[in-house]
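Database export, one record per block. Field names are fixed; values are copied verbatim from the stored entry.
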Amino acid sequence: MHARARGPSGEARPTALPYLILGGAQLAVGAAGIFARLALTGAGALAVSASRLSIAALLLAVTAMLRGMPERPKRGERVVLGAAGLALALHFAAWIASLQYVGIAVSTLLVATAPIWTSLYDAVVHRRMPNRAQAGAFAAGAFGLAMVVGFARVTPPVPGHELLGAGLALLGGAAIGAYFLLVRTVRGRLGTRTIVTHTYGAGAIALVAAAALAHQPPPPPGDLSAWGGILAMALVSQLVGHTAMNLSLRWFSPSAVAFATLLEPVAAALLAWVLFGERLTPLAILGGAILLAAIAVMLREERGQSLE
């Protein structure tokens, strides 16, 4: 499906709606690191992840009971959606845990490496090699990413475990890449609300079970800071951000959507600077600018291919 509008003379012309949806999704999700840091003051990473996803899943389940589901997934589609939910659960658990060991901007940057995994999958499985412009954008994005990570100079809440934090964030990036690829296989027949209702529900069940096994209870009811962070993650980052990201798959490929997630660390870095004093160096900021330019090229190339 291509987003097109009708001009005064009736001719079809491109609309900015797909780009606004995708950009808004990155801003909403980019703020999740701030919310998660607040939530982690009152509970462990698994409990925070389970609480976040459970709230979003519950709201979607209530909506499904009141309005019904647009489509009923077939048996094979339910299996795919369940697997996607598990990938989403792993993404949240690994990434939120990483925020204890690395700075917000660095963690969000590393989890945004999802394009590496989706592009690698397409290249190996589908032999879908990038064109010259896409390859150049990818190389520039990797260079900018390395600059930000290398010159961040931020002390995490639990110092001395930066390699563990980086590994957890990279695992979260691989998991969300797997989620995008799985969702791609069922999007032809299933709509966004059906997909997110099933995947959020499956992911929430997995995380609740994992938190129980790890003996990680949710924050105390009176911990307003922790619960405020969890509610903000569920309502702003999860329901608005990730749902809009799923919707954007109607116009962009999984690799393009995953590549656009590099906008998230830019928003996260700015918010972390203002709220927590996590100040990036000028070289790290330059790396962020290179990332933005690379994202623009990648999205243009992917959008142009989808309209051919």
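Remark 1: The chain has 13 helices and two strands.
Remark 2: The first strand starts at residue 4 and ends at 6.
End of record.
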